[in-house]
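hi! just following up on the protien thing from before. the input was this:
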Amino acid sequence: LRPAATSRELGRPGAASAQTLLAAMSQADALSRFSASSPARTEAEIDELLAALLRQHADVGEGKWVRIVEDFCRLAAEEKSKPWLQRRAKKLASGDSAAAERPVVSIEHMEKYGRVLIATSPIPALQVIVAEEPLIVGHATVSDALKERLVPWCQSANADATDALKVVEFMKAYGEADQSTREKVLKCYHPERFDKLPQSSQAFIRLREFVSTEAWASSVTGEEMEKVIVVKLMNAHPFSVKSAQATAVFEHISVPTNSCSPNAVYTSQCSRHPGRGCLIARTPIAVGEQVTLSYCDPFMPRSLRLSHLQQTYAFRCDCAACTVGPDTYGCVACPKCIPRGEDGLLPMEVPHSKSGYIYHHPQAASAPARWELRDGCWRRLPPDTPNSKDSDKQDEPPWLCDACGERFRDDDLSVGGMPLADMERMLFQEHQMLEAHLSSNPRIDFDELMCHYASVYRPLGLRHGITMRVQLFLCDVLVGNPELGSDLLESLIDGLVATVRRNGEQPGEMLPVLTQVAHVLVRKKRFDKAKALYDLALEFLTIYGEGSPKVKDAQRGLQACAKKDPKLVRGL
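and the predicted 3d structure came back as:
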């Protein structure tokens, strides 16, 4: 990209193509060359070279072109930048926005799932799939008089008042929408879902009668309003509105089906697309592949996921994570590798690095899955791989130890005489109750929290999803109270990162507390460890854009590590 290498020169016989020139060029090298060069002939020729650069990086499939656009525009924003560079940056930024508005997906219909979102072009990881404004947003516009009437109604219907208010706000937004918008919202309604609506949600259906006297509901029939309520319960997403959390339905983003190991993630906090919801690829998505989202807590074990999805969304999940692959967040300590005491519990101190955990391997109806632990992660083996160790025997016990290779049946697993599934359900409910209690009464007894932690990891082990959720909760507490134990905080986050990586997940996505933990370590002058955590966080946080407060906080922390100055994270 030296100034002489214009498009005319590239077009000469025997000259290297733009793609060849750019193939080995790094992002930093490209930016430095552009900043040092001037348009040798015309702006159009420079545009052509830059376009080739962007195409080359888009082909790599790592989302690098997004960062190039942001860095190039930031470079152009400097006072001493050349006028042509500033004009080019404006074109580039507008082109980036236009590209995001053109979905690379289409809405199709499948008999089993109803409407689904299908990729029509290859989608690299971390690329925005769809950025769109909501069809309707239910937020705090309900009158105080209606809120007052809602309280006794919720008491008589045994319904949660906060959830009921969100449903009423959503109905109001629908009632005030135009006919075209209403038709798009009702396309999200799946006919079978109404008949299978969980008992816990039946009370909200009766809200159609509660709001029937409101002016905004006069043009909506009772049957139509029932469908709107189902759409709210099944298809709505959280949406940030002026620092408040609302609920919204989208034309494309509300379509994806569930997968407990999804290939996309939703956010309404992308700084590149303010006021919009964004669907972003977690992994590369091939042409013809379904775009999926997760409807449940990422740390839920399979038994709890299946129950939650059935009770909340009225379907039994048949995704690959539930029917094929090992249940990574449902693993428990192997009885042979990590012996338990007479009380059926693990020792008080078991390091995260200790191997010997058994994973549930559900077998598909037609052909069993074949997996092995390779390079520290679970990898699926092709059907003809000889290392599958007779995994094609349908009657083999489904639980497999990653260390000794021993297999176990469901009946072999119990803690103190309680079946594992019952133990998981009980411990999960106890932790939910503790979180709810602390949200209303923030006074923390740390010794009590540590006892709760021990009561979870001693029956299940440190890699189980419920234990990891408790560990993440403890990290939150320690970030706010570092005097309680920064060493413990570092140990917990190290274990969480190792387990998430082992399960093939992205720590920056699964552990939103990474940046805050790094801030604590910077204040303790543990700069090397803090830098590693910031880098991990930024691998995923780039989806929010350079202008996102989350990205800015992590970048500020990196500056503190580079300058070894804890003052730079003061106030974060």
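The radius of gyration is 27 Å.
The mean pLDDT is 79.
cheers
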